Each structure stands twice: as C-alpha cells, then as structure tokens.
Amino acid sequence: MDELIFEAASRASDYLAGLESRRVAPTPEAVERLKLIDIPLQDAPLKPLDVLRELDEIASPATVASAGGRYFGFVIGGSLPAALAANLLAGAWDQNAVLQVASPAASALEEISRKWLLSLLGLPGGSGVGFVTGATMANFTGLAAARHALLERQGWDVEARGLFGAPPITVVVGDEVHVSLLKALSLLGLGRERVVRVPVDGQGRMRPDALPNLSASTILCLQAGNVNTGAFDPSAEIIPVARQAGAWVHVDGAFGLWALACPSCSKLAEGIEQADSLATDAHKWLNVPYDNGLAFVREPMHLRAAMSASAAYLIEVGQREPNHYVPEMSRRARGVEIWAALRSLGRSGLADLVERNCHQARRFAEVFRLAGYEVLNQVVLNQVLVSFGDPARTREVIRRVQEDGTCWCGGTEWQGRTAMRISVSSWATSDADVERCLEAILRVAKG
Ligand SMILES: Cc1ncc(COP(=O)(O)O)c(C=O)c1O
Hints:
This protein has helices at residues 2-18, 28-32, 48-59, 81-93, 104-121, 135-153, 158-161, 179-187, 235-244, 300-307, 335-370, 391-404, 431-446; strands spanning 128-132, 170-174, 196-198, 218-223, 248-252, 277-281, 293-297, 374-375, 383-387, 410-414, 417-423.
C-alpha cells in the first residue's frame, strides 16, 4: 500500500510540476491516445500500480491544464495546495458525510467551516449551510428552501404533497439569469419558462425600475457576478423592496459571492447579506478541488424542512447532521477541503486572492485597449470580454489562441456581440503568467 500511495503522490507532484511548461489544451495526439484505454474490460484483476501507471501515462496528457496559472476559460478556479493535500488525505479517509455518527470529523469540519464562512462573508451567523456539488445544486438547495417557506406560509406542505394543486409561486429572474438557475427551477417543478424576466442594463444588471410587483408568494432571484461581465444586480436597492413585499430573495453568487471576502470589491455585493438564500461555488474562487459548492439559508429551519429525511436506522446524535442541509444522503466530506482552504488562506489570504485576480483582469483589459481592441464590459471583478473585430475574426482569434496553447480562453455572445471571455480565478495565476498570455494573445490576434 505504501508504495502505491507514494507512487500516486509522486505522479501527482510530477503532473503539477509539469504545468508550467506544458501547453494548456492537450494536444490532439494526447486526446487520440485515450482510445488506447477504450478496451473491453479484462477478466482478471490488475495490479494497482499498473492501473495507476496506465492512468497517468494515458489520461494525464489528455487533461486540460486548468490547475495551472494560464487557464481563463469558463470560471474554473484552481486548487490551493492545502486544499489539494486535504483532498488527498480525505480520499484515504473515505468518509461518508451523511451523519455525524458516520464521520464525526466530517460533521465537525463542516460546522467549523460554516461558522468561518458566515463570518468571512458577513452573512447572518445563524444561517444554515449545505455542502453541495456546485452552484447548480446550491441554487437548487436554496430554491427548495424558498419553495418550502413560501408554500408553508399558505398552509401547503410541498414536501408531502408536491406541487399538484399547490398555491402558485411566481419566480422573478433577471434577463441575464444563469442557465443553471433555470435548470434548478425546472428540477423543482417551478418551470424554467414560467419565470418573469426583468430587463437588464448593458452590463447584465437587473433594472430596479423594471421590477414587477412582488408579493409573499414571489421568489426573486438575483445574481452576484454575471458569468460574462462579472456585474452584480443592485442588491442594496432591490432587496429591501422585495423584503418589504414579503418575497423570498435568492442570490446566485457562483463566483461573485467571494467579493464579500475582499474589502476592495465587497461594495459590489452591498446589501446581499439581507438575502434569504444564497448559492456559491467553492470550486471556483475559493480554489478547492472539484466538486464543491455551498448553499446558505438565513433561516435554517426552511432548509432542514426541505432536505430532511429520517428512518429508524439513520441514527441522529449530533448538533450537525450533514444530510439535513443537502439533497444527498451519502456523499463526500466536502467540508474537509473548504476547512483546509480557509485555514491556509486566513481572511487576508482570501482577500488577496480575490483582489489579485481582479487586478489581473484589469491588466488584461488595459493592454487589450492599448492594443486597439474593444473591451465590451466594465471590468468590475475578474471577467473580461474582448472583441477582436467582427464575429468571424473574434472567433478565429479564440480558435487560434486555444490552438497556440500558451493559455486557454473561451468565447461567448454578449448582448449581440461576439467576444472572447477571460476569467481570472486561480491562485496559481501569477502576474508573469498574465504578461506571457497577453503576449501570446496579441501575437495571435495580429497574425
Ligand atoms: C452565475 C453562475 N451560476 C451558476 C453557475 C453554475 O455553477 P456549477 O457549474 O458549479 O454548478 C455558474 C457557472 O459558471 C455561474 O457563473
């Protein structure tokens, strides 16, 4: 066993060391070689060391180097060294974070992380926190609590009776709502097309003057960090109006919520702490390994009511039974990595991480503008949208940047314009990486 674990650690270490010099996207040849393991399953067992060697030799070269500092696609984030190391140790633990009795350590690490997170983000200290797979499930979890609360007020037990014949709920979203929130609504039986969409401004922010009438049977979904522009809905203006009307306010802050941890950007999220539920990803800007998301609910009783399940054999002993806060029963002990990330960063480390990435995003924008390219968004956070000319030209530059391999940036359509997206969200991105990638992008764009 020792030899195997050391071999795995050594191969992982070599992989990480190689990130600096390798291209970001795998070569077509490396992807082609994946076919070598696409074989019928053999009959006899294989030695674990041989399995590991095969996996590393064939699959490692076909990975995308998103753990390195030159990946700017989607909003991916990296893995902080302490979080990755904790993930390796937790793999050995193989804990089931279903119940405290199944893993006192998992339950305690979640509870400690819950308290640290609420304090760090300035959210109400009594909030319930669910450790889920990502923002999609965090949105689902927060919205399930909302559905419970709104229908309970009207004397309807939605967990028991479902939505058949239930009093109607109106869901209000901004026109630039993230598709994952719509997916969560569809899973909850609230319907992705039944929503009322509020017009947005040129940055994708919900327009407060265009809000419909809200009531005690409304779920209002705000966004903290648009996936393209990084813009925030104006919570400070909207949430008091919604609360006055008795509406439930849910915030999708998949990456933007982390602005709350950074004094120089927290103004963007002003007022957000008044929300009833919030969703974020830890695998994005907290830089813990996949998969890791967080659902916050101000009044935990609604979350527990929406998520609880009980059976005689499920022994409940503790203050925190992890399964009371999430859709799953058995699951990975995700709090381990969150605890390790927070413990290693501290408050100032997290603020520095967010601040540094925002600064790097501004540097990208500045150099693009100086080179004569149009930056389509106000770079308020870590997202940059740049156009290299007409749509075909911009798409061609994106294709060639990806092919070049120095960095990886994706494309998008933003309010009718084609753009390259740059999302800076990793601790591993150094200022030198930014300059190296700028040089490569401008070289490709001019070529
Ligand atoms: C605003 C927003 N919400 C939700 C999500 C979905 O996150 P996940 O893929 O982690 O479920 C994303 C992903 O980028 C996002 O940007």
